[in-house]
């Protein structure tokens, strides 16, 4: 009889990329078990050689009979966001996730692997006459109530100033939501594509200015140092030491009447916004960071 380990993941695309490190830790702790992943973004895991099978959430026909009933299967299905170590900002998401599963964490990091066709497609798609700089100004789920999230998105004046500074030397590609403000002097990623096709943009980039969203997780998984701007979320929880994490200077005395377990929500409640203007980043620090990538 085969032994299995089931890793169930819910949440956004960036969380899934981070979860590849947790999946690796599960496999390292249980090498004798075939690792099954059930998740919302299966393409993130398909090319990883330590994964046995990947299933999309809601598309698990006969799963109970094949992998649960009368089988020796370990279940890893707990939400790391609602633990004391996460709420108290004591451990990174990955380390806390592994601790929640009682795994020996040995510093496993995220991993993304492209197959040959994905690599070929990305090379043809993203080659430009000048060096490519990627700037992700907006992220998060589609169709959220407020397209601009002050907790994570780069303020428009800051992003435009950075584009103006680098426009002569780089072909700048902006990644943002369809409904958000488009920066002038940029190419905009607008067309529908798979997530791995989007991640392949990073492989063709020479410079990266990112936010707390999927591309900063993907850049870390690909070993691509990036400049990541942080406002209301924490690099201690969601960031990586491989990046330059530049934290905004914001008002710490703001009242938070509707915050419960966390200080700021990802979407950014308007009346809890601590920003009085958009002068929240040291631009010299950003420019120096980009120069050292």
Q: What is this structure, in a nutshell?
A:
The protein has ten helices and ten strands. The chain has helices at 13-29, 63-68, 84-87, 93-100, 116-126, 156-166, 195-203, 214-221, 235-238, 283-291, and strands at residues 3-8, 34-39, 53-56, 72-76, 132-136, 171-175, 187-188, 205-211, 227-230, 244-247.
What does this structure look like?
It is built from ten helices and ten strands. By secondary structure, it is an alpha/beta fold. It has two domains: 3-100, Rossmann fold (3-Layer(aba) Sandwich); 116-291, Rossmann fold, CATH 3.40.50. The strands form two sheets. It has a six-stranded parallel sheet, sandwiched between helices. Helix 6 (156-166) links the parallel strand 5 (132-136) and strand 6. The radius of gyration is 20 Å and the shape is globular. The mean pLDDT is 94.
Largest sheet: 6 strands, parallel
CATH topology of the largest domain: Rossmann fold
The tally of helices reads: 10
From the 3D coordinates, which CATH architecture of the largest domain would you assign?
Answer: 3-Layer(aba) Sandwich
What gross morphology would you assign? globular
Averaging pLDDT over every residue, what do you get? 94
Biggest sheet, spatial arrangement of strands: 7-6-5-8-9-10
CATH superfamily of the largest domain: Glycogen Phosphorylase B
| Helical content class | 25-40%
- What oligomeric state do these chains adopt? single chain
Order of helices and strands: EHEEHEHHHEHEEHEHEHEH
Q: Give the domain tally.
A: 2
CATH class of the largest domain: Alpha Beta
Distance between the termini: 49 Å
pLDDT below 50 for ≥5 consecutive residues: which ranges?
none
